[in-house]
């Protein structure tokens, strides 16, 4: 897929997710029970943990979490533009993102790119769109598609080179390729606290945007290209 890749056709993205509620106690009885069943699986690595203590990790599961920020970036001539969809109402931000995909990325040459996107970002977005009653844009809908028809790029998968046991964080690859790190303020484990306790969504948006820039720069490194200078990056 990288042969003759035109970066102008790529939409780079990253999402930030949190649990549906700030605390386990706020779940209704049905979801307390269902999270309890999920927690039993998670307790294998932490047998002393309880369902309520483990609820802080609920945001990484689409069935128990929600997206609070989706940032994306694309080339526009010399500029690289960053746009973010964010807010407390997940349905609104996902509708806006779906509209973007339908209008500008509903073709046979556009691609989506994320780090660990095939395992996390892309399926999470699709699942949450379905939960919110949003029709899946063609580029995110994998039903019936053959592997070579899926127009997704995953910078972590590219780094694996077929080693499916290997996980490499974006932070590590950024350091390895001498790319300015996005982890200079918060990291993914802190997003739930920043959202529910500090109530600082703007901070999360900034963090998400930095991840998009880093993913973009990483793919450019893979392709042997120069990094985009900060002066050419525009937040819209």
Describe what you observe in this structure.
The protein is α/β, with parallel strands linked by helices. Helix content is 36%, strand content 17%. It is globular and about 50 Å long. The mean pLDDT is 94. It contains eight helices and six strands; from the N terminus they run βααββαβαβααααβ.
What is the CATH class designation?
Alpha Beta
- Give, in spatial order, the strands making up the sheet with the most strands: 5-4-1-2-3-6
Low-confidence stretches: none
Estimate the global geometry from the Cα principal axes. globular
Major pleated sheet? 6 strands, mixed
- Judged by helices, strands and strand pairing, the structural class is alpha/beta
Gyration radius over CA: 18 Å
CATH superfamily (homologous) name: Ribonuclease H-like superfamily/Ribonuclease H
CATH topology: Nucleotidyltransferase, domain 5
The proportion of residues forming helix, as a percent range, comes to 25-40%
Straight-line N-to-C gap: 29 Å
Count the beta strands: 6
Instruction: Write down the overall mean pLDDT.
Output: 94
Name the helix and strand elements from N-terminus to C-terminus, one letter apiece: EHHEEHEHEHHHHE
